[in-house]
Design goal:
The protein has five helices and 39 strands. The chain is mainly beta. β23 and β24 form a beta hairpin. It is globular and about 105 Å long. The chain starts with a helix and ends in an 11-residue tail after the last strand.
Length: 717
């Protein structure tokens, strides 16, 4: 027994003897102690934090050479590799990191939304709880400055640009069909669920050299990297039902969502002005799989939806109703990897594929259209130091378009083409100081279809006056290929071009944010044709041109009034262009001089409820009146819309959600269709373009079952 006790004591003594104390003091270059800095040995659990005097001390069993790491927010991370025995009574100085969260940021032309952004004008929850958007992230973005309300369309129109001039990306890879198809003069929605995204970047101009083929704007959607827990979500809505499930393992996670939408029951209660042979019906599903590797993250995303409807609508140029029936199948998938190659080099790469097939019947016209698209991209980001970072990479996009059909029951037609675009880009982030930074980039494009090259320089600069205020500048050239409806008829075209100039001021303080942005955008080489619509017999050229200039204002406050958050946005737009069939340079019919939004959300504790109200305003839109000698000199009345929603927390994981758009029933008109022939008095009759229904109502019940038994689909209620 004595021998056993002696051996135990000997082992204990040897263990005590083997332990080494690591100690020192951490200060700034001005000799001020740094409190609560993290101090540890790399690849071990041994470490401590500094005290009020900047001192630290801990013991370790490690022997030989080790790496000491000291980190603190807003300072460069300090590392020292040495024998563990020498790490005693150290005197260490940490230097400011000019690229930290407190440093100047390049904000010109860009809105960040999501919990991971430096300055969020929105968070992910705002997409769901903004009144009037019914969970559509596109609708939520239309409450931001720089956008124009085009009520009969629903897509993003940015700073005088068409909706086609804005491109959408998921995890850095292009989405070629981001919107659902709809009936004529019925607004569309974004295809993808907002619940899958935790980061949104909406660039109204001056965006990074990494992205191309967009004249006006890019919308970047990032799927959630790592869900926090297992959960199941049930949705029961006035329009259908949905089911979602997330399963989390140690290094893997899988999220699956499915939804079925059918407007038939809703339309029986709230009929509209259309004659429906089959009301819109859709089935959709999405899945995101993530796998964490030693140095990065692999994501696989896939989405499918099938939409059908059959409708008959009035048209002033036809005695009978015009019938449109459509079936659309759309599949989009991508795979991406984001990880480190060593300590200072990061690789981001991925591929995407989409396949969209549409069968369209329009009176005496039957069309089958198939579009397949592929996108592959790789980017390397090398951090040379905390003041200089270099990104470079390349991408290739290919689209195969095939449209065939029968017109007037006896005329066959078939349009085919393959368009391949490739690009290389490089961009440097330079922090001259914590107050002054720049981004300098260049993008080289090549389009195989019409053998066209372009080189696009892009520059952004930002200066920070103090902790709250900064100013940014941005300049760049941007190119975009003509649309498929133009390329299917002729490939004898060239790239279209826009040049952006942006001046931005930003002020943030204690959950308050103010932005003001001046911009000027010049268009060149826009596509023109010499008929009312682009037809097989039209003559095409790239002689179009135009400009857009204006001022965007934004204010968000979640601080001054308890339980109230709100934001106000205003845009002034002066734009003219000569493109398509325009005979002269005029303001296009999708643009308005003034746009404004007020979004409010108020939490009522006694009622366990959040109520929201959104007001949208747009001044009159231009339209062409053939009874006038001046092209596009008509103006509609101003657009007004007040929407309301109510989220009631039945229990922690059960929510009742009710919303109504255009609550006061404003009689909005989006323009006019005119008769092709004049009456006996030589005047052209007209038909107003109006919503098929003045109001839209939505009721939903959302139930979540999660590991922590507290999470719900509107997370902060």
């Amino acid at each position: 027994m004595k021998l056993f006790t002696t051996l135990i004591l000997l082992c204990f003594t040897l263990q005590i003897t083997a332990q080494t104390t690591v100690s020192g003091t951490v200060k700034t270059k001005k000799n001020q102690p740094i409190t609560n800095a993290n101090v540890y040995l790399a690849n071990t659990y041994d470490g401590a934090t500094t005290n009020s005097e900047g001192k630290f001390s801990f013991t370790t069993d490690e022997e030989g050479s080790v790496t000491l790491v000291i980190s603190y927010l807003a300072y460069k991370t300090y590392t020292q590799t040495a024998s563990v025995d020498s790490l005693k009574n150290l005197s260490i100085i940490l230097y400011p990191d000019v690229s930290t969260l407190d440093a100047v940021e390049l904000s010109a032309g860009s809105f960040q939304a999501g919990d991971n952004s430096k300055v969020a004008v929105m968070n992910a929850l705002d997409v769901v709880t903004t009144a009037g958007v019914a969970g559509d992230f596109i609708g939520a973005l239309q409450t931001l400055p720089g956008t124009t309300t085009v009520g009969e369309d629903g897509r993003l129109f940015v700073r005088g640009g068409t909706a086609e001039e804005t491109q959408v990306f998921i995890d850095g890879l292009q989405v070629f069909k981001p919107y659902t198809p709809t009936a004529n003069n019925t607004p569309t929605r974004g295809r993808y669920s907002p619940f899958l995204f935790d980061g949104i970047t909406f660039s109204t101009g001056g965006y990074s050299a990494e992205y191309g083929n967009a004249l006006s704007s890019v919308l970047l959607l990032n799927t959630i990297d790592e869900p926090k827990q297992n959960q199941t979500d049930f949705s029961f809505m006035s329009l259908g039902a949905g089911l979602g499930h997330t399963k989390k393992w140690k290094k893997d996670a899988l999220t699956i969502n499915a939804a079925y939408i059918n407007l038939a029951p809703y339309n029986k209660l709230v009929p509209d002005d259309n004659v429906w042979n089959k009301l819109p019906e859709s089935i959709s599903g999405e899945a995101v799989y993530r796998h964490t590797t030693k140095n990065g993250l692999i994501k696989l995303y896939s989405a499918f939806d099938r939409i059908r409807f059959d409708v008959a609508q009035e048209d002033i140029n036809f005695d009978n109703l015009v019938r449109l029936n459509l079936t659309n199948n759309n599949w989009y998938t991508n795979a991406s990897y984001d990880g480190f190659l060593g300590n200072s080099t990061k690789l981001t790469t991925g591929v995407s594929y989409s396949n969209s097939t549409a069968k369209i019947g329009l009176d005496d016209l039957d069309v089958t259209s198939k579009e397949q698209s592929f996108h592959a991209k790789a980017k390397v980001k090398h951090t040379f130091s905390n003041v200089f970072k270099l990104s470079y990479g390349g991408e290739i996009m290919a689209t195969n378009f095939d449209e065939q059909g029968l017109a007037d029951n006896d005329i066959d037609f078939n349009y085919k083409f393959t368009n391949t675009m490739s690009a290389a880009f490089a961009e440097a982030d330079v922090f001259f100081s914590s107050k002054f930074a720049g981004k300098f980039g260049v993008r080289a494009n090549y389009n195989d279809l019409f053998d066209s090259y372009s080189v696009a320089p892009r520059i952004s600069l930002a200066y920070k006056f103090n902790k709250r205020a900064q100013v940014s500048l941005a300049y760049g050239n941007f190119y975009q290929a003509p649309q498929n409806d133009e390329l299917k008829i002729t490939q004898d075209l060239d790239l279209q071009m826009a040049t952006h100039y942006i001046l931005n001021y930003q002020y943030k303080k204690n959950n308050q944010l103010f932005r003001a942005e001046l911009f000027y955008k010049k268009y060149d080489d826009l596509v023109q044709y010499d008929s009312e619509f682009n037809r097989p017999f039209s003559n095409f050229n790239n002689n179009g041109f135009g400009y857009a200039s204006g001022l965007d204002l934004f204010w968000r406050d979640t601080r001054n009034i308890k339980n109230l958050q709100y934001w106000v946005s205003y845009s002034y737009l002066d734009t003219k262009r000569k493109f398509q069939d325009f005979p002269s340079e005029v303001m296009p019919n999708f643009a308005t001089k003034h746009n404004a939004s007020l979004v409010t959300k108020y939490w009522i504790s006694s009622l366990r409820s959040q109520v929201g109200m959104t007001y949208n305003y747009a001044s009159g839109r231009p339209f062409n009146n053939p009874n006038s000698n001046v092209f596009m000199d008509g103006r509609t009345k101003s657009y007004n819309n007040v929407s309301f929603n109510w989220s009631y927390l039945i229990s922690q994981q059960k929510i009742l959600f009710i919303s109504a758009s255009n609550l006061f029933g404003f009689k909005n008109k989006f323009g006019y269709n005119y008769s092709n022939t004049p009456d006996v008095n030589g005047m052209f009759d007209r038909q107003a373009i109006v919503p098929s229904s003045d109001r839209f109502f939505f009721v939903g019940f959302f139930w979540t079952i999660s590991d922590d038994k507290t999470k719900n689909q509107l997370d902060n209620l």
